[in-house]
Amino acid sequence: MQFTIATIAAFAASYVAASPCSVPMDTTIATGNVFHVMSIRSGSDIQYSSLQAYENGLYLNKDDQDSTCDGAGNENVNYASFYLSSEGGLYLNTPGNPPQQVYVDRSTEGQGSIGYTTGAQPIGAHQERGPFSVVDGNLVFVCGGESPYSGFLACPNAVGGGYSVHLDTGLTTPAGLTGCVGFVAKALKEDNPIQCLYTDAPVADASGSDSAASGSYSAASGSYSAASGSYSAASGSYSAASGSYSAAPVAYSAAPVADDSASYAAAPVADAPAAYSAAPVADPATGSGYGY
C-alpha cells in the first residue's frame, strides 16, 4: 500500500526533500535490532501471519520455510527474522556468513517482485537492495515522492502453497497473479533473536535437472558457489557445473595447397560437432600429407 504525506505527518521532520529515499527510523526498532514481521489484514487468511523466507522469496502461510536455525529446539522455526542496516538494507538474521539480503524490483519487468540474495550473489540492473525502514512500527520500502513509502501485497496460490509477497507498486495483479491483497507489515522486536540460514531456490545443473542451490560461501575469496556452478566477484565470470562454456560447434578445414599453384580455394565447412580441425596439407618435399 502507498502511504501519503498526511499519513506520516509525525515523521515529516525526518524526511529530507533533497534526498527522497532518506531513511527515518522508528525508535522502537533501532539499527541492528532483530525483528520479525506480522501481517495485518482484517478478515483475510493472512491476518496475524508471520513473514517467511523460502527459496529466495518472501511468503505468508507457507507450511514450512525449511530454514536451518541455531540452537536446540529451534528446528521448527517457521518465521523469518530481519534487521536493518544504517543504510536501510534489510537483512535476514543469519549466523554470519553467508549474509542474506532482501531486494525489490519495481521495474515494468519486475512488477514489485521481492527476493533475497545469498553471499556474493549479484542483483539485476533494475533491482534495489533498499532502502527499507520501520515507520510507525511498520516495515516499508522508502521510495520517495509524494507517496514516499510503499507497503506490500500478498498473492495466494504460490508454488508450494501459501501467499507470495510483493512490493505494492500500484498493480493489483503483479505478474498476472490474482486475488492479491495489501497488508500492513507490523515489525515486532525480538528479545531473544534466533539466527537461521534460509533456503535458495533450486537451479538447473549441467544435465538440465534441478539441484538444491545451497552452495557455499568463502569470506576470504568473496566468492559464492552454488551446486550447479560458481560465481566469482573478482572476475565477474560464471561457469556451469561442467566448468566450461562452448559456442555452437563449427568445423573448419583448409583446402589442400598445391606446390606450384598461385591460387587458393576455400574448402567446404563441415557440419560436425567436433572441435576445429585442419585438412591434410601436401608436403612439398615428399608429396605425402599430414594432419593436425
From TrEMBL:
- Give start-end of the signal peptide: 1-18
Per UniProt, the keywords (alphabetical) are: Signal
Q: Which Gene3D superfamilies match?
A: Serralysin-like metalloprotease, C-terminal (2.150.10.10)
Which InterPro entries does this entry report, sorted A to Z? PhiA_domain, Serralysin-like_metalloprot_C
Keyword Cell inner membrane attributed:
no
Q: This chain belongs to which protein, by name?
A: Cell wall protein PhiA
